[in-house]
Queue: 4 jobs
Job 1
Amino acid sequence: MKVTILGCGGSAGVPMLGGDDGHGIWGQCDPAEPRNRRSRASLFIQMEDGEGILVDTGPDIRAQLLANGISAFKSIFYTHAHADHIAGLDEVRGINRVIGQPITAFGTAFVLEEIQTRFDYVFRPWTPPHFFRAVVEAQPVPLHGDVVMGGYKVSLFAQNHGRIESGGLRCGDFAYSTDVVELPEASFEVLAGVDTWIVDCFQKQPHSAHAWLDRVLEWKERVQPRRVILTHLGPDMDWAWMCDNLPDGVEAAWDGLSFTLPDPEKG
């Protein structure tokens, strides 16, 4: 299983729009460091047999897929329905054309209904043989529980994201928790024994909807993964600062970071 971080930035990316010269607001991030340039959070999981699962379709998804050489997958998992995680849904039309079929969109019933209110035409039945629009088929899944995506077992778990819930997922020895500020006990049970955990860490100071550095470090002590990778990083999280200050076993994500782990169980 190959895991690729397509984007690791917050809802506005880094740099954010604006700035004195119009070239962006970098906050504490050094503009000269390429790994400080972050597109919106998204992830791709590819199994050894070529089956792929895309996690979220943010507004940068077209550039992310092109940059990482990804042109085929049959499954999308939606963590939640905020714009920075769904706004690029139209772009999967190109994937429809490559694979010659609709893509299955997994998410809770509430999340899929929210997406359909904004992209109703994408969920209409496909009329073969052409794709004049993106075509996805909704597949509701529970917020917490085991499901099958692309033929593989995936364990989903609930997360608190401030005013709403979001979904985390575990595939074998890997787990992904973007857009989370609190985790219920049942979700810690799903995370037990995980090897590599990608976790939301928007900034250094407490936040109402996103985990911050001290909270992630507390979670690390409890879960004890071998490797923690921080994602959904805001302009407070400078690459060099993180390299100098993060403890062993904790590292910063960057757009395009990839690694391999054993495939999860077949479903």
Job 2
Amino acid sequence: MEDCPEGVDEDSFNRMRELRSEKLRAEAEVTKGATVLAEMGGFLAHLERESAEAKSDRDRLERELREHKELMTRELYDIEILFKLKQGQVEVPQAAVVTDYSDAIVIDQEVVESRNSRITDLGKDKVHILTKIKEFRKSLSLLDWEHEMLALQTTDLEERTKDVHMLRVTKDLQSLLKGGEEGRNKAESDLLERKIEHVSEATEKKEQALKKQHAMLAHAAKLRKNENGMLEKKLRELQQNVIQREHIRRLRGPAGGGGGAPQKTGGGGRVEAGSG
């Protein structure tokens, strides 16, 4: 009571002391709780690290287990089988001693026949197209020849018309024409001679022009011949490919040997180019 301020009764002072004591006890509890909370936070972080490590180990073990199961599945179905095939059906390059068939695949006969049929159809379509091109170019050449022939006939008629128009009739010729039979014959003979001379000159000029045109046509015909030769060569190559495909198909037919039908693998998958 010696510390009690003046004007404060004893009950209020005691109540204040009790409240102060409770405050101190509460602060001590808070301090203790903070310490416990810090310890729990550290322990929680430690547990979280252990949980992350355990989760990582679990994922690794699950991945290894899954890979092991896949390996066991492959080993269960990936077995070695002995096949007896007809000659001509094995297209793996043969080694000198032992041939490695580890990466070889078995293709169903129907797949090969369907591909060969498709190749044959494409070859026939190509040959048909080349035949159409050949016939079309042949018709174009024929039309060009007919056009040139008509042009030459037109030129010949024009030259004949010029010969008639350019023939000069003199008084002597008129008198000869009006004379008797001898004069008429002589006039006709002179007329024919002059006409022959004129026609000879015109023919010589026309011959030179025709020679030049003939050289051009011969060059064009040579080019057409070379082009037709290339087309015939392509046609023979395509026909040879078709014959080879038919020969291979017959060799792979069911009548060629006693081996059983090859086992289907991969559901008739993709056939690489050049696989037959």
Job 3
Amino acid sequence: MSASLSAYADALRALHRPGDPLVLPNAWDAGSARAVADAGFPAVATSSGAVAESLGRTDGEHTPPDEMFAAVARIARAVTLPVTADLERGYGLKPDELVTRLLDAGAVGLNLEDSDPRTGQLVDVAEQADLLAGVRAAAEAAGVPVVLNARVDVFLHPDREPADRLAEAIRRAHRYLSAGADCSYPILLAEPSQLRGFVEAVAAPVNVLARAGTPTIAELATLGVARISYGSGLYAATRAHTARLLAAVAAGDPLT
């Protein structure tokens, strides 16, 4: 099992190419994961928010770990592609258990954010770096080169000037990469000149969240981005479309 997981992890890491980004329309269940695979995407990512809502929960670590990892396992079993899981800040699990449960679920990558889910505030950079280093050490002990995507939440907190937020995001990204992260994810950073500055300063794979107002995939590639995630966007669009269909059914109209 570890040999096949290692092959998936190597494949996932190789897909992080600055200027030729890995595009990840995030899945939330086995069916959506199969749809991603059938559309020709080379890997599947989960969205913690979408998974949580599909389970009748809310984002922010309100999903019990057993339920979250069971959902990740169903997704991994549904496809023959590398799977990377959005695990918020780890659900309070120790790094060894977090990595064990990730691998047992069949996933080979994970996102970890640097906000405290209880308060929504940024955690101390050294504390987050220790968590990431622990995950890297646990993955090495397991013999699987897990792909670790370190989310940087500075841009979720508009309490600083833009230049200060950029500088802090770069500082955190450097610390997280030094601790063993493979990719940095400055969520909500989308302004082209700031994004280019971040990519150039970090000099490692950078993940961008695609949403309204974000540059196009081609423009993000030109900026040197290596990974593009859609978060819970597809899930939200699917729910909105379902609501329209249900309204049509309630009105007695045929489905279209």
Job 4
Amino acid sequence: MIFQHPQFLILLALPVILAFWEWVRRGHPMVLPFDHGRQRRGWFLRLLVLGANCLPALLLALAILFLAHPMTYTPPEVERQLNNVQFVLDTSGSMAEDHGPQTQGRHRRFDSAMEAIEQFTNYRQGDAFGLTIFSRNYIHWLPLTLDTQSIALSKRFIEPNNPKLDPPSMGRHGLPDELWGHTYIGKALLGATELLAQRPTGDRMIILMTDGESSDILPPKDIEIITRLQAEKITVFAILLSNEKIQPQLANIARSTGGEAFNAITGDALSMVFKRIDEMKKVVVLEKRPQVVDFYEPFFIPTLGVLAASVLVLFGLRFTPW
């Protein structure tokens, strides 16, 4: 415990002097007829009355402690550095194709991507996550938020169509291929970059998941994208959800920003990729210094108790004036 105004503590000498004077003073003794008898000294009652007379001095001491403003240090708070992670997810029709073994029913590339995203967000609690979907154009479906459940709830509204694989009886969902077809990775990366650039604090990261190639990252457009990403200090991780060779320009974009490009041909492989990303972008723990806060609490109850006792003894527990 410390005091904001320790110079006031010297005033504690006053209640000590008052209490000492109360115990040693004789007052104005008056001889009464029974003083020459053999009565007991009554030490217990005397000590009780002297203690009651010292209560005002104790109240003064407590008031001086309050005046000195007691304070204490709080335990150091452990805080992690915020990471801003924007998922850029391809939702073109090809993302509805099968991904990995189909032993437990239909499992699409889109399903694997959403499952991996959900696992990653649950594991990295404390980071801010956002979701951008893209194909011909892009939509920032979910802004950066600490509410990770929002991404999982969006699955039903963004899953892709594939008329070649899904019979008409399943009903159509997602955006029509006529408006949403093709894959433009460069446009989506620049859009996510503009969004992340608005975050003033924390690291910035893009995790791109796609299953195709893009014409809008071919030279010289890839240089423009890399320059923009590097200027905003954004790290890009690119994941290709197929066994095809990763487009060289996409791999170059990722590595130029400090990230990497991966192939993931199964859901298990995709989970391993996300573990690798977690290792490459570890959580940074910041330990904050302890803060100084008011420390009046230990004095409240004793002060109220002494005040109540002082009021009660005024009803008669005192030396008689004769």
